[in-house]
Design a protein that fits this description.
Elements (H helix, E strand, L loop, with lengths): L2 H15 L21 H15 L5 H7 L13 H16 L2
């Protein structure tokens, strides 16, 4: 699977969750924290991505982006960075 396919799936997944899709329409690199998803939405988003791509995303990313205060390191993560991370995780899983 290439980067564009991953990006499309990420956007499709967000499109199913977001009420206001204008946040992602016409913008390829928004801050993930700007999506204003609640914890349940983030859980659904990450579960879908992990299932679809057969990867495990770091708990630190999931906890920070779902507005839990434990790890602020990912507060500036953009969709393109998340797509890069998914691609990296998929590549590392395939090489095992």
């Amino acid at each position: 699977m290439d980067r564009l396919e991953i990006q499309q799936h990420v956007l499709d997944t967000l499109g199913k969750i977001l009420i206001d899709k204008s946040v992602i329409q016409g913008q390829e690199d928004v801050l993930v924290s700007a999506l204003e998803l609640d914890e349940e939405d983030f859980a659904e988003f990450f579960a879908d991505l992990q299932s679809r791509f057969h990867i495990q995303l770091p708990i630190r990313i999931k906890s920070d982006l779902s507005h839990l205060p434990e790890h602020p390191d990912y507060s500036q993560l953009r969709l393109q960075g998340l797509i890069d991370l998914i691609l990296l995780k998929m590549t590392s899983e395939e090489s095992r």
